[in-house]
Design a protein that fits this description.
Layout: H1 2-9, E1 45-47, H2 49-59, H3 61-82, E2 87-96, E3 102-105, E4 115-118, H4 121-128, E5 136-139, E6 148-151, E7 156-170, H5 171-238, H6 244-279, E8 287-289, H7 293-302, H8 304-307, H9 336-347, H10 353-358, H11 365-385, E9 391-404, H12 407-410, E10 429-440, H13 448-515, H14 520-554, H15 558-562
Parallel strand pairs: 1-8
Antiparallel strand pairs: 2-7, 3-6, 4-5, 7-9, 9-10
Helix pairs in contact: 1-14, 2-5, 3-5, 5-6, 5-11, 5-14, 6-14, 11-13, 13-14
Amino acid sequence: MKKNLRVLLLAAGPGLLAPAGATLAQTPTATRPGLSNQSAAVDNMPLSLQQAVDYAIKNKSSLLATRLGEQTAKARVGEIRSAGLPQVNVAANLADNFKLQKSLVDFGAFAGGSSATTLTPSDIAAAQSGQTVNLGTVSIPAEPVPPRAIAFGLRHAGNTSASVSQLLFDGSYLIGLKAAKVYEQLAQKQTQQAEIDVVEQVSKAYYSTLVARERLQLLSRNVQRLDTILYQTNQTFKAGFAEKLDVQRLQVQRNNLVVEQQKAQRLTELSVALLKFQMGLPQDQTVQLTDSLSAAVVDAGSLRQRLGVANMATGAGVTGLGGVPSAPAPASTNTPEQNRQDQQTALSGARTGQLAATFNYNNRIEFSTLETQQALAGLDLANRRAGAYPRLVATAAYGFTGSANNRRDLFAFRGPDSRAANGFPNQNWFGFGNVGLSLQIPVFDGFRRKYLVQQARIQQQTIERGFETLRQSIDLQDAQSRTTLINALDVLDNQRANLDLADEVARVSRIKFKEGVGSNIEVVTAETSLREAQTNYYAALYDVLVAKVDRDKATGELYNQAKK
């Protein structure tokens, strides 16, 4: 029974202990409250593999979340660019200086000196008579005056201003513009990586659905065939030409087969839910799969031309097991020696000469992503070095400042033309403005920039080392997926041949039992062997389809095929 469940359980995704098969349709259910924006599904949704992949790429919630990272990257680019645009600020301040700050002032420096001018009554009389009078000076002893605390300004003060600054030169800013574009590319490649994972998951779930559908239909045919044999045996027993034990053996076998069919049906319903989950499809939407297993197997079989043709020393060929005395005909123009070398090369973990010449590491999104990370690391290193460059900024400001003894007087906003009642100017708001350049030249930062450059250089070297590790990993995945697919195809050919043999044995056993020259035990044994061969065949079929997906992912073709 464990083998019977294998086909339905193999496609469970990471972290999900659920089967990966699927049925053609489900009974429509009521719309759930949480899906108010989606109508209840009443019709089957035709679904090919390409349609399933397209739907998943557009609607899978995890992909939608990943695409938000692209929008974040674009916003980050705008943020960096904004630093090079004019920066305009407007400010306004009000202050109530309820206790004015005082400063000491030395008034002795302004008065009480060493001399003074004298004016006598005779000088006044001479001046009144029109005579010229020369005034004299006398020395006055200086008296020391201590400094006094004086408060400057008024209690209420306010100011408003507008300032503009424009970055003229900054090495870090120029490098940041380049890094922003590369960062956006990195976000796009991360989204593509997530899409590849979704394509892989949906493809495996879809293939598992096809296998489950075929196996479920086969179980139904087995039940029908066994019902026919049981009916005929029962009639023979009633006629006195068979034993009751023969009927009971068939009944036991039929009961086991029905239970297996029921279990497969329930597991298939669960696997359809897994397919919908991988697609991001509502669970109440019924689906109708339109692709066939035969087309998928043909696609997988065609890969033999590029994987190397199996020979008598390595297993079966494309057409399955041949007769024992004869060797299968080669399916390509390669010599047997070249085929043997290719097989040995694949099994040793390397790549054949033809594939090595055509394999492009850039087909793998991981390699392209690492290249982008390397570019970012190089820009980060340049940015650290640019910290030693000067920074030049142009600035300009214009505003007004005012003061008064009370708040009401402060908001009077009296300008230069304002006059008091006595005719004196009483302006309380004054304008100011300035333009200038700000130049900053880093001189010494305690070797901080030196160590930042060292860190950036080490990070760049780490990524460069990662390329070799990634190449080796890709080579291993390539050889592993190639060998796994070859083995899976050989096993499938073998299981197909076993299935044909088991089916023939079961057919002959039924005929012999019907004609009275065979035993009931022989029929039961043949039917049991047939079901085991069927289970093994569909397990091998699923293994081939999964190996095909893994092979396409290893060569970087999975995403391109999904985009067709």
